[in-house]
């Protein structure tokens, strides 16, 4: 069974979810497993179909929303959890969920194939995919050589009014990118002033902040903006469908995100949730997802030849930025509140 909000926001989500989750008590005799995820229809539908094919006794149900919205919803439901698996989002958001006891310890069978930094010390969440923020542009309107090749290029006067940004308050990807800028300022100068000045200058360049990725790409294709920051996976999916999308990896480095997964504390279908978590990190599932919907696996043990050519090339080209993840985890929420209060729309 599929159910997605297309990231339209919590108000609509609350209304629709009440109806769909009530279906758990009716219909066929299959065991449901409910996923809250920012991963989008392409990935979620693929995994739903394959997992149900392998497990005919299971009904995979999913809700598609932004990373921050997943956190907010799991937290609001802590007394009566409706999700079984928290599926996707930056590990810094999962860390906040762990601190609020929203996750239950479970070590999947593939956990030890991850690098240590991708495994929570208390087995509450684990990196499954790698999410890579990139610089994206309309390739019909901008030549690749002229497109931004690094973060500071976004501040060039020629991009004034031509940048579109996914609303950072709802997006884990954008929160991470903005957090990297501020954390870099702290590392280089000892305070956040330069970082917030950079974000203020970016705001002055920005034509609009949009509520979801679909609107972001619609505006980009229509040339209502020419440049954006977003994640590699969606860019590749759009290219595959013929959209005029080009991208570059930031030359100075990008914050490669551990896109994580965890068991929701008090999950109603905990046994099936554990089975799903075990399966989704298997070699077979990861290779399928890389080939079909452009996800980079976080596991270190997969032979390069198992991965599609795009993944091999991306892993070779990506420059990992040095990021103070602990600082972002501790201060990121307050940084975003400050950005929202003092910078958004004021640059």
The CATH topology of the largest domain: D-Maltodextrin-Binding Protein, domain 2
- Terminal CA distance reads 45 Å
Major sheet characteristics: 7 strands, mixed
Radius of gyration: 20 Å
Classify the beta-strand content into a percent band. Answer: 15-25%
CATH superfamily of the largest domain: Periplasmic binding protein-like II
Instruction: Please indicate the count of domains.
Output: 2
Which structural category fits the helices and strands? alpha/beta
SSE series:
HEHEHEHEEEEHHEHEHEEHHEHH
> What's the pLDDT, averaged over the residues?
92
- Helix content range: 40-55%
Q: What CATH first level of the largest domain would be assigned?
A: Alpha Beta
Uncertain ranges: 1-26
Name of the CATH architecture of the largest domain: 3-Layer(aba) Sandwich
Number of helices: 12
The tally of beta strands, per DSSP, is 12
**Which outline best applies?**
globular
Please describe the topology of this protein.
Elements: H1 10-21, E1 31-37, H2 40-54, E2 58-64, H3 67-76, E3 85-90, H4 91-99, E4 103-104, E5 126-131, E6 133-138, E7 163-166, H5 172-189, H6 193-205, E8 206-210, H7 213-221, E9 227-231, H8 232-240, E10 245-248, E11 257-264, H9 270-280, H10 283-293, E12 296-297, H11 309-317, H12 325-342
Parallel strand pairs: 1-2, 1-3, 7-8, 7-9
Antiparallel strand pairs: 3-11, 4-11, 5-11, 5-12, 6-9, 6-10
């Amino acid at each position: 069974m599929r159910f997605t909000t297309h990231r339209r926001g919590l108000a609509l989500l609350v209304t629709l979810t009440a109806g769909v989750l009530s279906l758990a008590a009716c219909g066929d005799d299959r065991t449901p497993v409910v996923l809250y995820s920012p991963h989008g229809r392409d990935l979620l539908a693929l995994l739903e179909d394959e997992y149900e094919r392998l497990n005919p006794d299971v009904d995979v149900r999913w809700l598609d929303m932004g990373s921050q919205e997943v956190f907010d919803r799991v937290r609001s439901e802590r007394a009566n959890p409706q999700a079984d698996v928290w599926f996707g989002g930056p590990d810094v958001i999962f860390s906040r969920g762990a601190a609020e006891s929203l996750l239950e310890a479970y070590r999947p069978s593939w956990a030890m194939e991850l690098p240590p930094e991708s495994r929570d010390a208390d087995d509450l969440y684990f990196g499954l995919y790698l999410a890579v923020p990139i610089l994206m542009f309309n390739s019909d309107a901008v030549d690749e050589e002229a497109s931004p090749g690094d973060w500071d290029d976004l501040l060039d006067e020629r991009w004034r009014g031509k940048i579109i940004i996914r609303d950072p308050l709802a997006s884990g990807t954008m929160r991470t990118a903005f957090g990297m800028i501020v954390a870099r300022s702290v590392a280089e100068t000892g305070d956040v002033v330069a970082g917030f000045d950079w974000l203020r200058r970016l705001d002055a360049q920005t034509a609009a902040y949009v509520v979801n990725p679909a609107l972001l790409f619609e505006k980009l294709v229509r040339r209502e903006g020419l440049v954006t920051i977003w994640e590699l996976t969606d860019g590749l999916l759009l290219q595959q469908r013929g959209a005029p999308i080009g991208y570059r990896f930031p030359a100075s480095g990008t914050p490669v995100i551990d896109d994580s997964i965890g068991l929701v504390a008090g999950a109603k279908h905990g046994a099936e949730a554990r089975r799903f978590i075990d399966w989704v990190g298997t070699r077979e599932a990861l290779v399928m997802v890389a080939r079909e919907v452009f996800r980079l696996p976080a596991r270190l043990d997969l032979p390069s030849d198992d991965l599609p050519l795009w993944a091999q090339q991306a892993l070779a080209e990506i420059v990992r930025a040095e990021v103070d993840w602990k600082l972002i985890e501790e201060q990121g929420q307050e940084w975003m509140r400050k950005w929202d209060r003092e910078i958004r729309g004021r640059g």
